[in-house]
Prior knowledge:
The protein is an alpha/beta fold. Helices cover 32% and strands 24% of the residues.
Amino acid sequence: xxxxxxxxxxxxxxxxxxxxxxxxxxxxxxxxxxxxxxxxxxxxxxxxxxxxxxxxxxxxxxxxxxxxxxxxxxxxxxxxxxxxxxxxxxxxxxxxxxxxxxxxxxxxxxxxxxxxxxxxxxxxxxxxxxxxxxxxxxxxxxxxxxxxxxxxxxxxxxxxxxxxxxxxxxxxxxxxxxxxxxxxxxxxxxxxxxxxxxxxxxxxxxxxxxxxxxxxxxxxxxxxxxx
Length: 227
């Protein structure tokens, strides 16, 4: 992983997730078509700015009660994990309950406050969330569904690879997320993304300007697209 500076983070936070996807496609063409969520995720706070952080991965289940007497020890180890470097973090939790995905919500008022307090900016999960009016202020949530109950939700594993609606994530991956979804950002191309963004913005502005010109619109749009 290439070392990221404050400048890199400021740049990534200044653009939305679709723009990140566009730039990754431009500078790393082999990444086109994967590395991002490909199904809708509920976002109860669409007006929050993009979040950029390092993946803290976990897997959960909620349909059946947890087995074993050492579960609390696992939860304490999990807290150590999410509080560890690199920071800031983004929780990326895969619900592995098969046909019962989202049966119980891991996320609500308590967990959002705990995770925010330990340095996390938000969560991306195919599972469910609840307590929307009471979650920690500014904590972003992208989730597969809503659920009123936590049922028997419990951690199965953490720090291991997960997959959220087609986005394969490893612990420590750099994640960019907003109301549109999430994407894994290859850290070794962020400098190239910054350079490419200037040309991308200029080209899009030319096309939009041409599209809004009532005189000879078609020809101007074609010229802008070809340029």
